[in-house]
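User: Batch of two.

Assistant: Item 1 of 2:
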Amino acid sequence: MADLYHQREKNNTPTMESLGGQFSRLHIAKRSAMKDSMTYILDIDVSRPVEGQSNQTVAILCSNKSIGLYNKETMTCLQEYNARPGVLSGVRFSHSNSNLLFSACSDATVKLWDVRVSGSEAAQEFNGYPSNVFISFDISCDDLVVCAGTEKIDEDAFLVFWDSRYSPDTHSREPLGVYSESHNDDITQVRFHPTNPSLLASGSTDGLVNVFDISEGNEDDALSSTCNSDSSVGVIGWAGKGYNQVYCLTHNEGFCWWDLAQVDTDEPITLCSIEDVREKIEGCTVDYLTGGLYDDKTDSLFLVAGSHSGTVHLLRCDSDRLIHLKSLQGGHSSTVCSFYWDVDDNFLITGGEDAQLLLWKAEVQDLSHKKADSIKMASSVLQKVRVHNAKSYSPKKK
């Protein structure tokens, strides 16, 4: 496996180096500060480009239970949606309609917003069951299905599904169905496959990353593979040619990477497993992992990590190790909680505990604002999900 990887690395070395070079040439183009200096920016999404329109919209999820909409070029605030008293979990633009934005809420709803309309009313609501507390969600790549994951209530943790197609004549929608047997603790992440709308991955504090084919008639048949991280799962994503791999980042700053193509073979499914990446990185200080990015042009998986002083690191995933490529400094003054990196258009948006939203572009530098002073309080990494205790994890089939 290592020889095959290094051969691939050799063939693609110039391109991979240029991706690291892209990252290192990024400078702050715009900076936008939150009104409340104690607000953390927990999630970021950007609307898809529309032919004939130059402006894209940035949506951010804030720790003060609000969603902010920003002009991507100017980083000026366009409007704000307030979800109080519910706690929000994630923001996602529709893949096909840049005017539609989804968010999940602890009040047992997923809300659909029309960003062209101001005000506090959602265009449509997807209702869960009364006991549901949604802490994760995603939309299928064809925009037909939305799925939300719940906190564990009593003995139950659910994946809830709806028909996500917007209908202006129907304000409220009921679930199509639920999966209730595959996780036994909080479902912290839900991610649909980037190109196959029938495939769904879910991650939980029970340590498991499950992959489902939701075109199957029931949950038992839909569950196609289960990978065990032996830790509490915080972030999951898809990678590999054809996106036939999944990876996860744990709440203990661990990293696991699996090849689903090997599930029915004698080859090992695990590509990489690191219990604590903070002890394994040379050349930089890593305090936490933020998320992942798969580059299909080079068939390479990258992780974005950081230090509590605000430095952002780019790491490349290799078999059994992570390699530090480049770092960005001078932007944030504390933990960076979220990012959105468009490799093709070469811009990066980051948000963090310092109540700063930054737009990074190549060879552009904003000298009008200095780095914000650090404002320390309880880490926002723990505001994405509630604090979890360490526990034993029972492996299922691999």
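Item 2 of 2:
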Amino acid sequence: MRFPSRPAVIAAPTLLLAALALTSCGSGSGTDSGGGSVTLTIAANSIQGGKNSESATWIKQWVIPEFEKTHPNVKVLFQGNGVDDEQYKTKIALDLKSRTGADVIDVDGIWVGEFAQAGYIQPLAEVGGAAADQWEGWSQIPQAVQGLGIFDGKKYGLPQGTDGRVLFYNKTLFKKAGLPEQWQPKSWQEIIDAGTKLKAAGVPVPIQINAGTAMGEATTMQGVLPLLAGAGAEIYAAGKWTGASQPMKDVLGFYQQIYGGSGLGDPKLQQEAKGRDKSFAQFAAGKIGILAEGDYFWRSVIEPTAGVAPMKDRDQAVGYARIPAKQPGGGIRGQDFVSMSGGAVRVLNPFSKNPKLAWELLAFMHSPEAIKAEQAGQVRISARTDVNDEVLTADPMLKYIADEVLPITAYRPGLAVYPQVSAALQEATAAVVGGKSADEAAAAYQAKLEGLVGGAANVGG
């Protein structure tokens, strides 16, 4: 991922001071006083030869010349950055607060709500006009994936690449336990049942669902939030945060089933500083039966040649399945299966002096041709179905994510307090792993949550 999952609060004074030197005066949109041609600017936290170099190269060597070919009176500039993501976020916030900055801006999807509430960004149609609503690309982006750039029901940004969470499983261990090679659990109980059979077959760690504070955001994104979606709730909905509701108790109860003495999971692994890395190594070594992770695990961890924990027989030995709802139909939106995703979006500067042209540039950057040029032959999941259908045929797992998982996915709320809420969720799972009951952990989480979000009035459930 290009952006961190734990963003800084915009108003943090130290970050504001740190970013002052990065803020360029007069680098915003406008017309060229020399010849009347329009100047547009793209901002991203990427720089050639440094951070996210490939993205910067794509913008400078493909996007700009190709767009300028069809817009001869437009000059496009690239405002590259190669800084810490929190510094970049603060710089963008300062630009927008002062009504300057680039016309098209890369942001993490988790920043959208925060920026919208601050008035730094506006819905695409309000900036780019009717063309933004009528864009052909919307029909190619699944509604769930559009959610990455949506806040309070309005579209603020176009999703870039995204990902999805699934259950990975070891087919060799499944065969040993008498489980099917093609496995798709339809409920949480079926996961527990499979874990029980794996344990009986001598598998050291039948189930690995990230838990505890040492795992950080991986606990929240690979564990708590998908499970919460499977219990029929989202962490933030209709202006309220989910507290010690029945869905939250169900999630913590599921953790208790795995880590509360059943032997289905390894409690110590969740408490180790490098527990997640160790879980990767154990799965690759055939010691973990079922593991919940994002497609990053397939692409970069157990990739047979260059992975962090390579599995030479990955394509034959590793299966993957959708995360089931607690019960069929019990997930959010009445779904049988659920997932969580992350990713970046591009937004329009509401203070652009050429908003309609800025929209044309943004739409061009998300055209099929542009996305394929950005991927440069690499197999990666894009937000567009038509592109995925063409480029993912070489990797069945990533095509599975695009076809089966993205249409049912969900996203974290893009609000400033989310990182603290996420930490409270991690603490709740840590309490269960440490021996507390689900009800005890839920009650402690509720109290912490109320303190974070301004009282019980802002907590639902």
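The longest strand covers residues 38-44.
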